[in-house]
Design a protein that fits this description.
This protein has 104 residues and is mostly helical. 94% of the residues lie in helices and 0% in strands. The protein has one domain. It is rod-shaped, with a radius of gyration of 29 Å.
């Protein structure tokens, strides 16, 4: 379930970059240039922007995966510490109950 959240974050980043590319393309199309000049600019920069957006989305996905992995490790470590403390308390309680019974 948490793994899906990491994928969602990367998906949102991908949509963000796609929106940025669409905005840049709209800006170029709405500038006072001839259609031919605008198409040439889009052709020149479109592939470059797409590659940058894909690289940034992949990097964000890797970072999300790394953070998820670190979070999982921290969670497991804390869970193990809590289980250990619980077991130590349980053992101490049994020991004290044994002492009370033997004294009584």
């Amino acid at each position: 379930m948490s793994d899906e959240r990491g994928g969602d974050a990367a998906g949102y980043m991908g949509w963000f970059f796609l929106g940025a590319i669409a905005g840049a393309a709209a800006m170029l199309l709405l500038t006072p240039k001839t259609g031919t000049e605008a198409r040439e600019l889009l052709t020149e920069h479109g592939q470059e922007w797409l590659k940058k957006a894909q690289a940034a989305a992949e990097e964000a996905q890797e970072k999300a995966g790394d953070l998820f992995g670190k979070g999982r490790e921290y969670f497991d470590e804390q869970r193990n510490r809590l289980v250990g403390a619980f077991e130590a308390g349980r053992s101490a309680m049994k020991e004290e109950m044994g002492k009370v019974r033997s004294d009584g």
